[in-house]
Design brief:
With 297 residues, this protein is an alpha/beta fold. It has 11 helices and 10 strands. α1 packs antiparallel against α3 and α6 packs parallel to α8. It comes from Araneus ventricosus.
Length: 297
């Protein structure tokens, strides 16, 4: 590995060696000074190979030079997720405490494969005029999340609309899905409707037999009793009248003062915030290290 270019060595380290070292960290990591020191000693050997520098360079500086996060902080991150989802313990992220029940932790086949509901959707540039059309959309604006639904008659007159602000941790995907859920709740089972959305990811999630989100499962349950619902995908922001109205409604929902609906937090939010927390701790560690003033001078 000594003759390999540094980028190749780093790739080998990140993809293989780092994962091998952290294997089982959920169980064995205890957060003690002894454990952290041992992890950093092991990491140092790899970082010297990547940086190809003098052995006198400090471990903190090697981490900065190579862009590799401290191994003890990565182990801590893995251990925190284990505590939350396997031990049902509360974990502090930012300024709030979270438990496993706060997260959208679905990964199941809701219905047996032989009993899956057939689901069809197609692209549609121009809304159909022979049915009631319902446009749905989700939005994230200024760290707030909202869902919007607008129902139009055959002459494009607004029959009704809904605007709901969701919890700030919700994703745009969940907001788009919840808008469809609201549309189904607001209509009768025997009603013929067309539901339009600009989210292909939500339509593909509904199409899949596996459900990764509770709101997707809830929509599927409603659809089992709806024979006259058709789904259409429309391109976003190309001037489609109903879609633009739904987009405005979703943005208006984000401006509400009160959160009206709390959905399970997606794993993507957790991964992002845990990584951000790791980077913040790394930054503070570097700024308070004895080497910071020497290297930054």
């Amino acid at each position: 590995m000594g003759s390999c270019p540094p980028p190749v060595v780093k790739e080998i380290y990140k993809v293989a060696i780092e994962k091998l070292i952290l294997y089982g960290a959920e169980i064995w990591y205890d957060g003690t000074a002894r454990c952290n020191k041992k992890l950093l000693q092991i990491q140092r050997l790899a970082l010297l190979k990547i940086a190809k520098t003098y052995t006198t360079v400090s471990t903190e500086a090697l981490q900065i030079l190579t862009g590799c996060e401290p191994l003890d902080l990565l182990a801590e991150r893995v251990h925190l997720q284990f505590k939350m989802f396997n031990k049902n313990l509360k974990v502090t992220i930012g300024s709030k405490d979270y438990s496993s029940s706060d997260f959208d932790n679905f990964n199941i086949f809701e219905f047996p494969p032989w009993d899956c509901l057939p689901f069809y959707w197609r692209a549609c540039d121009i809304p159909l005029k022979d049915t009631k059309n319902i446009f749905t959309d989700g939005s994230k604006l200024d760290a707030r999340v909202g869902s919007g639904v607008v129902c139009l008659d055959q002459r494009d007159n607004i029959l009704w609309q809904c605007e709901t602000r969701l919890n700030d941790e919700a994703s745009v995907f969940l907001a788009e899905a919840y808008a469809i859920f609201m549309a189904l709740q607001k209509t009768r089972e025997d009603e013929t409707i067309g539901i339009y959305t600009d989210s292909q990811s939500v339509l593909q999630a509904l199409e899949s037999p596996r459900s990764y989100s509770k709101i997707i499962v809830d929509i599927k349950k409603l659809l089992r009793h709806r024979k006259y619902v058709k789904f259409y995908w429309v391109k976003a922001h190309i001037g489609t009248y109903g879609n633009e109205l739904a987009d405005v409604a979703a943005k208006e929902a984000t401006r509400k003062n009160q959160i009206e609906q709390v959905l399970g937090i997606p794993k993507s939010w957790l991964n992002y915030n845990l990584k951000y927390d790791t980077l913040s701790k790394w930054q503070k560690r570097w700024e308070f290290s004895l080497n910071f003033r020497f290297y930054m001078a």
